[in-house]
Each structure stands twice: as structure tokens, then as C-alpha cells.
Amino acid sequence: MKIKIVNKSRHPLPSYSTLLSAGMDLRAFLDDPLTLAPGARILIPTGLYISIPKGYEAQIRPRSGLALKKGVTLLNTPGTIDADYRGEIGIIMINLSQEDFVIHDGERIAQMVVARYETVEWEPCGTLDETLRGAGGFGHTGQ
């Protein structure tokens, strides 16, 4: 699949780290390093603008290494970039650790997965088909 992209940053285009990676790394586009204090959140620019085809979305997800090693993750996860959005991709980061986290220009801060989706048409009805689970919700299996 080819997707149009405008790169206003100084960094390479998003890319897959390995042959079988689902997500492409996104990098911070900053003039100066930013410090994210414990408990704080911030919107980090990427300098990237994309045109996703109809029937697809771009999902923005945390990087597992940052979450495990630094306690830094993303809010609104996964974030969705809709096919009709043409603004800059921004990454909403939060520091869940007890220490300051410094974000540097070019640092890999998130990953993006492009995924297909279906558009739903609701079909109002009076009842639904029966299943073994039924209305069982959170913790209904006792596990």
C-alpha cells in the first residue's frame, strides 16, 4: 500500500524496525529537548502529515521499551488518525514514573500501525441471538 506523506521534520520517514514489524516508529520533532515531569502529559509534534486511504486508519501506539524502562506511555491509546485528517501527527505522552523524562529531537516516541476497518450500518431489532456467554461481563469466567 502506498500512502502520501509530507515530512516537515529533519528525520527519516516512519519505518519498520524489522521485516515482520506491524508498527513503524515515529520520532519527536523538537527545536529543543523537552522535560516531561512525573504525572505530566504533553503533545509532541512529529512534523508528519499523511493521507490515509478510505477504509483505513493509522493507529498510534506506545513503544513497549519506553513503557517498561522509563514508565512513559501514550494517552488515548491507540489513537486513531482518520482517513480525512490532514493535520500534523501529534503524540500525547504521559510520564507515569517518579522521575523526569527528557524527550530529544529525533527520539523514537511512538509507533504507527495502518489498519483496515469497516463502516457500520446499524440494523435495529428487538432481540439478539443467544450465545453461551450471554450478558456475562467483566470477570464472568471467574479467572
Describe the model:
With 143 residues, this protein is mainly beta. The protein has one domain (4-116): Distorted Sandwich (Deoxyuridine 5'-Triphosphate Nucleotidohydrolase, Chain A), CATH 2.70.40.10. It has 1 helix and 12 strands. It has one helix at residues 64-70; strands spanning 4-7, 15-16, 24-27, 34-36, 41-45, 48-51, 56-61, 72-74, 79-81, 90-95, 101-103, 108-116. Strands 2-3-12-7-9 form a 5-stranded antiparallel sheet, with no helix packed on it. Strands 5-10-8 form a 3-stranded antiparallel sheet. The chain has a two-stranded antiparallel sheet with strand order 1-6. The longest helix has 7 residues, at 64-70.
Brief overview:
With 143 residues, this protein is mainly beta. The chain is built from 1 helix and 12 strands. Strand 2 and strand 3 form a beta hairpin.
> What string, H for helix and E for strand, traces the elements in order?
EEEEEEEHEEEEE
Number of helices, counting only DSSP H or I runs of 4 residues or more: 1
CATH architecture: Distorted Sandwich
How many distinct beta strands?
A: 12
CATH homologous superfamily heading:
Deoxyuridine triphosphatase (dUTPase)
- Percent strand equals 35-45%
Please outline the helices and strands:
Blueprint: E1 4-7, E2 15-16, E3 24-27, E4 34-36, E5 41-45, E6 48-51, E7 56-61, H1 64-70, E8 72-74, E9 79-81, E10 90-95, E11 101-103, E12 108-116
Antiparallel strand pairs: 1-6, 2-3, 3-12, 4-11, 5-10, 7-9, 7-12, 8-10
